[in-house]
Specification:
This protein is α+β, with helices and mostly antiparallel strands and 289 residues long. It is 36% helix and 24% strand. The strands form two sheets. Strands 4-3-2-6-5-1-11-12 form an eight-stranded mixed beta sheet. The protein has a four-stranded antiparallel beta sheet with strand order 7-8-9-10. Bound molecules: glycine.
């Protein structure tokens, strides 16, 4: 079976550095695909891809995550494999790579989702060192919020910096599939707010039918259980049809990437922009937005 990797850089605005986004999307594809080429499982590939985007400040995940209403970064992440393995963290602070902690939750605990202080404490237990993901740029933006009126300034900045989840889906040579996603959530969100990213069936899903990752407006994505809804179309249809179908039928601002069991790919969005990339043994494409 031919290996395939598809990545997602978010569906927010073009306000972040486009050149950087293009560069790191390319690096994310290379880093993840090396795993597939070396015969590693799809889960290793999607995690490697997401780590590159978490470490790049031009994406809203890990380093570069948006601050909440109190100027603090709270991050959500999850992983899911086609055999049902799932792990997630929500509203977690002071960790460099939330996606790695999500994997630890899946592999080292009997839980599916750890949140808040408990997630951070678990991360330390697993050896993830204390790290501040708040960049100078985000600190500066937060100080501007203090100057604006709540409704005017806040609303505008929210629109500019939201709808951004990074993610990846992959099919390995053995037919295994996996998905991983990570985000800092919505700009200036209420402390403790959790979006769709760590919610199984919301922003992520994977089974023997396919692997799915979603970016966009978390509350609407959760309300419509977007990833599971898309998954259920895969029982009868391929990834391409499914991606177009859910984008057309679900009333939410979002973008989606899907790989199905036959190696078909679906990429669709109804937001103005979406950053994505795809790589196979013979093909590579990056779309920075
Ligand atoms: N989709 C990311 C969020 O709303 O948190």
């Amino acid at each position: 079976m031919d290996s395939i990797l598809v990545i997602l850089g978010g569906s927010g605005s073009k306000i972040r550095n486009l050149e950087d986004r293009e560069k790191y999307l390319g690096e994310s594809l290379e880093s993840g695909f090396v795993e597939l080429k070396e015969g590693e499982e799809a889960l290793n590939a999607v995690i490697k891809s997401v780590i590159v985007m978490e470490d790049a400040p031009c994406f809203n995940a890990g380093t570069g995550s948006v601050p909440n209403l109190e100027g603090v970064v709270e991050m959500d992440a999850s992983i899911m494999r086609s055999d049902g393995l799932f792990g997630a963290v929500a509203a977690m602070k002071d960790v460099k790579n939330p996606v790695k902690v999500a994997r630890d939750v899946a592999e080292e605990t009997e839980s599916l989702l750890l949140a808040g202080e408990g997630a951070t404490r678990f991360a330390r237990l697993m050896g993830h060192k204390e790290y501040s993901p708040l960049t100078g740029k985000m600190r500066k933006l937060y100080s501007k919020k203090e100057e604006s009126s709540y409704y005017k300034g806040l609303g505008k900045m929210r629109r500019l910096y939201s709808l951004e989840t990074v993610g990846a889906v992959a099919l390995d040579r053995f037919g295994g599939m996996a998905s991983a996603i990570s985000t800092g959530g919505i700009m200036f969100h209420l402390p403790g707010r959790v979006g769709d990213t760590p919610i199984i069936g919301g922003g992520i899903y994977a089974s023997e039918l396919g692997a799915i990752a979603v970016t966009g407006h978390g509350e609407a994505i959760m309300r419509h259980v977007v990833a599971k809804t898309a998954h259920d179309f895969l029982i009868e249809r391929d990834a391409e049809y499914t991606a177009e179908k859910v984008i057309k039928e679900i009333d939410a601002d979002f973008g989606i990437i899907i790989i199905d069991r036959d190696g078909k790919v679906g990429i669709a969005y109804n937001t103005k922009y979406m950053s994505w990339g795809i790589k196979t043994m013979t093909y590579k494409k990056v779309q920075a937005a």
